[in-house]
Specification:
The chain is mainly α. It is 79% helix and 0% strand. The chain is built from eight helices and no strands. α2 crosses α3, α6 packs antiparallel against α7 and α7 runs antiparallel to α8. The longest helix has 14 residues.
Length: 126
Amino acid sequence: MGALCSREEDDHQALHYYSESYKYYPVNLETISWLGIYYVRIDLYEKACHYFERASQIQPKEVKWKLMVASCYRRMGILQKALKLYEDINNEHPDNIECLRFLVQLCKDMSLPYDNYAGRLRELER
């Protein structure tokens, strides 16, 4: 029902159905993803983070969930936590271009050295 309401652009009703679905079956990644993205769209990053962390527990090897968690912290302005998460992701997935891009930008924003990340990013983008 949530997907149907979402297709009809009735986010309020879709939120209701997806939330109910999550309550009874909290491992469905389609439901978790929809809820996380919904909360990002309305700038409630703390709530979104909860769902992306849950998805990361269900699929621990899937980097996109970890990137979404780090992104939520970055958007909340909790930059030190975001940096730590991006560094952890980079250690596990050193060839992830998206992670390197965020590391470069975050280090620039925080006035931290970023040459190492920028160099690796340039190499990977060739």
